[in-house]
Every structure is written in C-alpha cells, then in structure tokens.
Design brief:
Elements lengths: L5 E9 L5 E10 L4 E5 L6 H7 L8 E6 L2 E2 L5 H7 E4 L12 H11 L4 H14 L15 H13 L5 E5 L7 H12 L4 E5 L3 H7 L2 E6 L2 E7 H5 L2 H6 L6 H7 L1
Parallel strand pairs: 3-8, 3-9, 6-7, 7-8
Antiparallel strand pairs: 1-2, 1-4, 4-5, 9-10
C-alpha cells in the first residue's frame, strides 16, 4: 500500500509575486486516513492541496505519493492515483450531460467503451445520482453538482481523494448528504475546509496551517478542544463542541 502514502518533506513554495505560500511543511499521511487541513484565510490550505496533485510544485523540498516524488515526469501516473475535487464544482463540469462529464476522465485514459460505461454507472450509483445521468450539469442543484464532481473523480478509481472546501455553498440537507457520502468512502481523504464540524465528523486527524506553516498535527478532537491553539490560529471551536459544553 506504499503508493497510497502522501508525504511532504520540508516543502516550501513562493508565488510568482514573491508571496510565500508554504514554509517548510512536513507530514506523512498513511493509507485510509482521513485528514482535515484547517486554518484561516491565507493559511496555505489550497496551496498545499494543489501540491498534492501536481497542480503546482514546491520550490524547495519534496512532495511524494508513495515512493515517487510529484514531478512533471511522474505527473500522469500521480493523477491516476490522486483525485482532486475543487471548491467550485463548475470548474470540473463542462460537458453537455452528467454522464459525459463522468466519462471524460476514463475516456482520456484510453479505456474501452464498455469499461468506461461500467465505471460511469458505478460512480454515479456510488454517490446516489444515477437518475441524473442524462441531465445537463447547469440544470441541477449545487449539492447535485458536488456529487457529480465527486463521481467524475471516482470514475478514475483514485487511491487518494483531495477536497477543497467540499461543503462550501451547500444547504444543510445537501451538507448532511455529503457527510454521509464521504463517511462511506474507504479512500485516503484529505479535506481542506473552514467547516470544522465537517472535519470533526469525517477526519480522525487534523493538520493546522498558519501563514504557510504547520502549527499543529494530531487527533481532531484534541486540537478542537485546545482553546489557546484555536485562538492563536484564528479558529473557533466547532459548534458541535460548543453545544456539548453548554
């Protein structure tokens, strides 16, 4: 299972305008872990997530999937193992039908038509939206778009799921459905989000980022009960824990 391991080794990144994005980030995530990436705006969450799929590369240090560093040379293989779900599902949905969007990735792998159809059917069924297969993506709800975006990644059969603000813009019912859906996945999951209650529901482990540095990495419940740590990183205790305290 070494190819499921996600690792950063002293990874640093500076944007073209000179703004630091990451400052010596190191961690190791094992197969099957669900890990939350949390921090205030500008902490480096999305920047780090983009490193894990090779959207951008560190200027110093290394990011690895299993035994392989994420480089241009390894990028095709890395992206078959690592699927990313962007904050705005419209960034991933551009075909005339939901079916076509989900089929796009497998088709670009050069898979036979029968296998593509099987993958699409399985992915749509797994997220509970088989009935949307022939619908145009622009005529479905925000929660349904999120489910389709997840299906487009699942159809690629990745080992690792990366998610950037997956609950952003969802109504309470759609958010509950998303949590139920993600809780059933056995993939390694890395979720960058401001929604700390979602992290508490889905992630046993949390990494806290502050101005491009890791300031904490440990069990989610311990981190979210550390009031001083939360304040230092401009975070608030999840509502679930606030209610329990009352």
């Amino acid at each position: 299972m070494s190819h499921h391991i996600v690792e950063a080794i002293d990874a640093a990144y500076t944007y073209p305008d000179g703004t630091p994005g990451l400052k010596g980030v190191s961690f190791r995530i094992l197969h099957g872990e669900s890990v939350g990436l949390v921090g205030a705006n500008g902490a480096g969450k999305s920047t780090l997530l983009q490193h894990l799929n090779g959207c951008i590369f560190p200027g110093h240090g290394e990011v690895r999937i299993g035994d392989y560093p994420i480089t241009d040379k390894n990028l095709h293989d890395i992206r078959r193992r690592v699927g990313i779900i962007f904050q705005d599902p419209d960034d991933q949905l551009f075909m005339p039908r939901v079916f076509d969007d989900v089929a796009f990735g497998p088709l670009n792998l050069g898979l036979p038509k029968d296998e593509v159809e099987q993958r699409v059917a399985h992915a749509l069924n797994e997220v509970g939206i088989s009935h949307l297969a022939d619908r145009p993506p622009f005529k479905i709800s925000g929660g349904e778009k999120r489910a389709v975006a997840i299906a487009t990644v699942l159809a690629m059969k990745p080992d690792i799921l990366l998610m950037d603000e997956p609950s952003s813009g969802l109504d309470p019912k759609s958010r509950r459905q998303l949590i139920h859906l993600l809780s059933g996945f056995t993939h390694t999951k890395i979720i960058a989000t401001h929604d700390l209650d979602l992290v508490l529901d889905l992630c046993e482990r949390t990494i806290v980022l502050n101005h491009g540095r890791i300031t904490a990495d440990g069990p989610s419940l311990e981190i979210f009960n550390d009031q001083r740590l939360l304040e230092e990183n401009h975070l608030e205790k999840p509502l679930t824990l606030q209610i329990r305290r009352c």
